Amino acid sequence: MNDNTIPAIHAAGLHKSFGDYAAVEDVSFLVPYGRVVGLLGPNGAGKTTTMRMLVGLATPTQGVSHIAGRPYAALSRPAQQIGVVLDAGGLHPSRTARQHLRIAAAMAHIDAARVTDVLNETGMMAAADRPIKGYSLGMRQRLALATALLGDPRVLILDEPANGLDPAGIRWLRENLRAFAAAGGAVLVSSHLLAEIEHVADDVVVIAHGRVAAAGELTALTAHHGGDLESFYLDLTATTTEVRSCFAQNC
Ligand SMILES: Nc1ncnc2c1ncn2[C@@H]1O[C@H](COP(=O)(O)OP(=O)(O)OP(=O)(O)O)[C@@H](O)[C@H]1O
């Protein structure tokens, strides 16, 4: 049972520095249950770093974040509470999808029957017993999503999940994220595909230069741009489109 008065995701004043380089500065936002929130921003803006902090893969220099009211590290059963897709790489090339999912389920104390469920849900059943090394990018994305869904979580954090998906896969993802939120789940999804975010998101958070440049309901934010997310986004980020790079700053 969820306490819907507690946000699914709460980022409060997150900062992350790499050496002297401030990749993320004072980023705060909420993702309530029942909503899809799009995390947008130019290359190098700090989206992935923010998501990594939310799930304990990067330690904030300052600030805190909570998932369902607790820091990620304090979740009792993280795989059952939050599904994460941060990188569709990092899969063992010789394993099959079914083997990968069985191992992930066993490690998270999830019923092995869920493996069949998520293979079906993500359209991966036909490829389930082939080695991952032969998978396309889109198939790896589907497997990453299947892994995220294994524990039947109520919260999803997805970094560019549409990357490599074919048109049918993009539609499938859109419909599933909308259905997930309609059933009371919460989704934070990053993407450069603004048309896709326009279809799927209720709210957006735009990060530019490591800071929140705009956040709120999609329809309200884009009202002065005829409801067009692309015009809104390009106006907002017009002065911040250069790729930020720690490397370029020799840090
Ligand atoms: N481990 C690291 N060490 C040094 N710099 C890093 C590290 N991780 C990220 N950065 C820098 O932090 C900044 C933000 O990177 P991040 O990957 O969060 O951006 P992003 O918004 O996800 O970009 P993209 O849309 O290109 O994926 C970039 O300048 C990047 O070079």
UniProtKB/TrEMBL annotation:
<keyword id="KW-0547">Nucleotide-binding</keyword>
<protein>
    <submittedName>
        <fullName>ABC-2 type transport system ATP-binding protein</fullName>
    </submittedName>
</protein>
<keyword id="KW-0813">Transport</keyword>
<comment type="similarity">
    <text>Belongs to the ABC transporter superfamily.</text>
</comment>
<dbReference type="Pfam" id="PF00005">
    <property type="entry name" value="ABC_tran"/>
</dbReference>
<dbReference type="InterPro" id="IPR003593">
    <property type="entry name" value="AAA+_ATPase"/>
</dbReference>
<dbReference type="InterPro" id="IPR003439">
    <property type="entry name" value="ABC_transporter-like_ATP-bd"/>
</dbReference>
<feature type="domain" description="ABC transporter">
    <location>
        <begin position="9"/>
        <end position="234"/>
    </location>
</feature>
<dbReference type="GO" id="GO:0016887">
    <property type="term" value="F:ATP hydrolysis activity"/>
</dbReference>
<dbReference type="InterPro" id="IPR027417">
    <property type="entry name" value="P-loop_NTPase"/>
</dbReference>
<dbReference type="InterPro" id="IPR017871">
    <property type="entry name" value="ABC_transporter-like_CS"/>
</dbReference>
<keyword id="KW-0067">ATP-binding</keyword>
<dbReference type="GO" id="GO:0005524">
    <property type="term" value="F:ATP binding"/>
</dbReference>
